[in-house]
UniProtKB/TrEMBL annotation:
Domain Carboxyltransferase residue range list: 15-219
Record keywords: ATP-binding, Hydrolase, Nucleotide-binding
Protein name from the UniProt record: 5-oxoprolinase subunit PxpB
SUPFAM superfamilies: Cyclophilin-like (SSF50891), PH0987 N-terminal domain-like (SSF160467)
Coiled-coil boundaries: none
Organism: Achromobacter veterisilvae
EC code: 3.5.2.9
Gene (UniProt): pxpB
Gene Ontology MF terms in the entry: 5-oxoprolinase (ATP-hydrolyzing) activity
Top EC class of this enzyme: hydrolase
Length: 243
């Protein structure tokens, strides 16, 4: 499947609004992760932010849904029923996503070796050579669906079915910053040293999250990313130049 497929038109878009505790509701656009649904979530989130609905404190898109956090009626905000009705009205007016997406960003990646300790294992699971995994991972562009788990922690996809590899049975307690890892047809890039159970196939020398930078996160939802294979020597040179 093409990760940059066309988004649905407003007439094709459907959603469900569900309570999530007493201070949040979820607008669900389905249960299938693909670029069209992801762009719909991003467009809906932007529509809701622009509306500046009274009582709403945050709007957070994910792969297939948008979380709307709000102050409940007892604290001066709307009731769940009131907010759900208003959100339904706004979405019914149209939420067509922008097919062009966000920025196009190249991310250099040194695959395998010390930077990608799981590359050979992923290749065996996918029925490919390590070079085949690198080609499959780096040739098409990947969409940034969301940031989560940690500041600047990007989730990208959707990759070829051959990369539908499960997470590791035992997570690592510490994954280095810049690690590029795959699981379930998706990629994550660790912005700093974190625990994680994804399969590490490479690493980027770029700084994914820097609080002193604006914006702090290198990647943003809707960005289109091309992974560019580099040598260990190029990895060291880029990292040194960035210090």
């Amino acid at each position: 499947m093409n990760a940059l497929s066309e988004p649905p038109s407003p007439a094709e878009t459907s959603w469900r609004i569900l309570p999530q505790g007493d201070r949040c509701l979820i607008v669900s656009f389905g249960d299938r992760i693909d670029a069209a649904v992801g762009r719909t979530c991003l467009a809906a989130a932007a529509r809701l932010r622009d509306a500046r609905l009274p009582g709403v404190t945050d709007v957070v898109p994910s792969f297939v849904a948008v979380a709307v956090h709000y102050r409940p009626g007892a604290h001066g905000g709307p009731t769940y029923a009131q907010l759900a009705e208003r959100i339904g009205q706004l979405l019914a007016e149209g939420i067509r996503a922008d097919a062009s997406g966000g920025r196009e960003v190249d991310i250099p990646v040194c695959y395998g070796g010390e930077h990608g300790p799981d590359l050979d294992e992923v290749a065996r699971a996918a029925g490919l050579t390590p070079e085949g995994v690198i080609e499959l991972h780096s040739q098409p562009r990947s969409m940034v669906f969301m940031l989560g788990f940690a500041p600047g922690h990007a989730y990208l996809g959707v990759h070829d079915e051959k990369l539908n590899i499960p997470r590791r049975p035992s997570p690592r307690t510490a994954v280095p910053a810049g690690a590029v890892a795959v699981a379930n047809r998706q990629t994550v890039i660790y912005p700093n040293r974190l625990p994680g159970g994804w399969n590490i196939i490479g690493a980027t020398p770029l700084t994914m999250f820097d609080p002193a930078r604006e914006p702090a996160a290198l990647l943003q939802p809707s960005d289109s990313v091309r992974f560019v294979p580099i040598t260990p020597e190029e990895f060291d040179r880029i990292r040194e130049a960035g210090r």
